[in-house]
Amino acid sequence: MLMDKTKQKLSASYVTGAIPDSTRQRHAPLYGRLVSEEHLPATHRDVHHQQRSISPSSSSTDIRAMQARIPTHFRDPSLAPLRKLSVDLIKTYKHINEVYYAKKKRRAQQSQGDDSSHKKERKLYNDGYDDENHDYIIKAGEKFLDRYEIDSLIGKGSFGQVVKAFDHEEQCHVAIKIIKNKKPFLNQAQIEVKLLEMMNRADAENKYYIVKLKRHFMWRNHLCLVFELLSYNLYDLLRNTNFRGVSLNLTRKFAQQLCTALLFLSTPELSIIHCDLKPENILLCNPKRSAIKIVDFGSSCQLGQRIYQYIQSRFYRSPEVLLGIPYDLAIDMWSLGCILVEMHTGEPLFSGSNEIDQMNKIVEVLGMPPKHILDQAHKTRKFFDKLSDGSYVLKKVSNQTRKYKQPGSRKLHDILGVEMGGPGGRRHGEIGHTVADYLKFKDLIHRMLDFDPKTRITPYYALQHNFFKRTSDEGTNTAGNVASLSSVSTSPSTDQQIHDDRR
Questions:
Q1: Residue 22 falls within a domain, yes or no?
Q2: Both 184 and 245 in a single domain?
Q3: 288 among the known binding-site residues?
Q4: Nearest to residue 152, comparing CAs of 144, 168, 141?
Q5: Annotated catalytic residue, options 130, 167, 276, 332
Q6: Where is the composition biased (Low complexity) (predicted)?
Q7: Which long-range contacts link 485-488 to residues 24+ away (Cβ below 8 Å)?
Q8: Active site includes 76?
Q9: Does residue 135 lie in a domain region?
Q10: pTM of this prediction?
């Protein structure tokens, strides 16, 4: 309304000739604001000068002709801001609403586009050879070094991947461990290579149940370790039994080989702690034979060169690691004791869902740890409360949903089914599963699961146990390997020295 009146006044001025002095600045509406004459387009200034000569008697036709000469880019009065906020207010709000949702939709589309571009960027890790987890993108048929033809993926882990490949030079299948393209994983894998090379040199005849590292190389920023190709792991074997376990005879064959391997690792020139012994890291050499090998030394270290505090898979984690006591070679013997029970029963002996649950389940079977162990551990208060008389009790966990049995009340005797024909009575009447056989097995397990790592049985003395005197495994030549190993570097005096060092 205001702008319309202004226009009428200006039109009247043009008609009557009531134009201000030429030395003054004249104003006309342009895009909703007033501008001086010198800012008007030339054509508009010409109109002003012509209007000075128009008389009051000029016809309306002349006026329309004059108005037609006004540039088209001048705003329609109906678009004036005041009109938009008064007469056309509802239209204005509708327009704002439409603009808002249009912008919102456009932002959403841009966001989706950004996500898509990020996905494309992720595919370009390491020039497109890696995925977003820094794992090498496996392609069947690809050749590494124009020698190793990739067949298929065997497995994945935190370290990287393992693939089956064909070695065209040696005309055999191999397993290649491809380490992640990240510095920490590379550093740890380099330690693994060093330890494997040490073990392979010391086991030139390949008879102490340690996986053979053939060679290693770099491929597109990934360290690749080439191993002999083995078969199923012991967890796969358990799954094949529907988790009912293998016979005591087969358990004995596995135990003898694993004790021999630990004896080999404990020799003074090696002193290697595996740190992650479990069924998944023990592989059959042949699916139809009982010969096995230990794999995955990615967490391993030498005695006196411990790298990590958080080691061992929880089910097989030793009390000294749980309690934060400096550990040594004995932690692998604890893991072995847990593994042997699981192989025969089909179930983990201590299946804790966390460290506190793990300790409680250990105490259920073995009773309370010795006082001197708890006194020296710096994580004792995580699991136990100390009473005024200096003794310890298990800490009560708030919101505890599971009730534990009294310490030592879940007997290993019952878990193994010593007098019931094995676990669940499943081995009743089978050859090699007498009460006497089970008593020997139970005694060996108790010695392997000693709370005190200093008194826990060592590999050498484990191999002298009565449990192994019943029979020998000709298929794996275990007895011959033990005799050979003992004659070379593991005499009783040598083993006793290792045993004394842990004291």
A1: no
A2: no
A3: no
A4: 141
A5: 276
A6: 484-493
A7: 485/208, 485/260, 485/263, 485/264, 486/263, 486/460
A8: no
A9: no
A10: 0.71
